[in-house]
Design a protein that fits this description.
Elements lengths: L1 E7 L3 E7 L8 E5 L5 E5 L2 E2 L1 H11 L7 E7 L13 E4 L5 E4 L10 E6 L6 H10 L2 E3 L7 H8 L7 E5 L3 H10 L3 E6 L2 H16 L7 H4 L5 H7 L6 H9 L3 H7 L2 H7 L8 H12 L3 E4 L3 H12 L15 H8 L3 H6 L1 H19 L2
Parallel strand pairs: 9-11, 9-12, 10-11, 12-13
Antiparallel strand pairs: 1-2, 2-6, 3-4, 3-7, 5-6, 7-8
Helix pairs in contact: 5-7, 5-13, 10-11, 11-15
Length: about 350
């Protein structure tokens, strides 16, 4: 899916949305402050856009009717409205919010974080400071992610999560994003993943797991029945992991910052990840989260994260201690442990002036 807002003239908003299904007439949803949703179906032919997208990306559309018009026949007070959002009907991808100079930063911001558990307070804070926010960005197809990164109609965008660093960093740089990363002790991150997956799997929201783990689906089956309180059973669980599960467990931080699509982390990727991290605007570690927030607030001239500490599920610290004693786990996290040791040392030196 690709999209673009061509104009917001106050009394009307014009844009287009190219769906993945070439026979589909696309729709957008306008979400009002009270939660009411109004569907707007494309009615405008955009043959030039369709031709351009076909040549650039191989996209096709059967009719070329991909343009939509939102005006005062739909919303009589559209010119005065501020608190509404336009999203795609299919997938609910954010497409447009009006920039509010009193609230929103006129900046582009990317926050890389390998964690699978969402920090909802941070997501809410970012939404207060940026017009368009894309949490869990790794879930988007490549073309859609590229469209939202380079969105020419948006001056205030925040992208967070685990999008492929090697694939997208050049686009972030070309668009002028402030790019930051927050690293974490690999044992602690794995412990949180296992606790989060098991907790969610046993809840009514278990169907959301593929949303949070779109890039590591093999972990869902592995962790859903993890015997968290039994060290011997945990050992047996790791020994019985399938090849796909072992790959999903292997050094996710090194994978994020150094590996291409379908690459498995190797020793050489550690130095590549360190080089890549050295080239972005800010790198922090969770153990010094307050310092990370302080430096970031100075950099952006605003505290966009809005929290003093991050949420951590119960049992993570205890499970982290168990995992750190298991050689099979240390082998799976070998490259991340190496990467984190080097990166955290550099962070400490930078913050402490060593």
């Amino acid at each position: 899916m690709l999209f673009h807002i061509e104009a917001d003239q106050g009394t009307q908003i014009v844009g287009w949305l190219m769906p993945d299904n070439p026979s589909e007439t696309p729709s957008v949803l306008v979400i009002l402050p009270d939660g009411k949703e109004i569907e707007v179906i494309a009615t405008l032919a955009k043959p030039e856009v369709v031709e351009t997208l076909r040549d650039a990306f191989g996209f096709h559309h059967a009719t070329g009717i991909i343009g939509f018009l939102i005006d005062e026949t739909i919303f009589p007070n559209l010119a005065e409205m501020q608190e509404f959002e336009i999203v795609s009907k299919d997938g609910r991808v954010p497409i447009y919010r009006r920039f509010q100079i009193s609230r929103h930063l006129e900046k582009h911001f990317c926050y890389f974080d390998v964690a699978v558990m969402p920090q909802r307070r941070i997501q809410r804070a970012l939404r207060d400071h940026f017009t368009l926010c894309y949490p869990q960005a790794q879930r988007y197809p490549m073309e859609t992610l590229l469209a939202l990164i380079v969105n020419r109609s948006a001056t205030s965008v925040a992208v967070t999560g685990r999008p492929s660093f090697t694939r997208h960093i050049s686009s972030f740089r070309e668009k002028g994003y402030t790019v930051v990363a927050l690293l974490r002790d690999p044992y602690e991150e794995l412990a949180e993943r296992l606790v989060f997956i098991k907790t969610l799997a046993q809840s009514r929201a278990g169907h959301l797991l593929p949303f949070f783990l779109s890039d590591a689906l093999d972990l869902i089956e592995f962790a859903s029945d993890m015997p968290i309180g039994d060290p011997k059973s945990i050992m047996a669980k790791f020994r019985g992991a399938t090849p796909g599960q072992r790959e999903a467990l292997t050094s996710p931080m090194t994978r994020l910052f150094a590996c291409g699509i379908d690459e498995v982390p190797q020793h050489r990727h550690v130095s590549l990840a360190l080089d890549n991290l050295a080239g972005i605007d800010l790198v922090g570690v969770r153990s010094r989260f307050t310092d990370f927030c302080s430096v970031l607030a100075t950099m952006l001239e605003r505290d966009v994260l809005g929290v003093e500490k991050l949420d951590v599920p119960n049992n993570v610290a205890e499970l982290c201690g168990v995992l750190a004693q298991l050689g099979i786990v240390s082998d799976l996290l070998e490259h991340d442990l190496n990467l984190y040791a080097h990166a955290s040392k550099a962070v400490d030196a930078g913050l402490d002036g060593v």
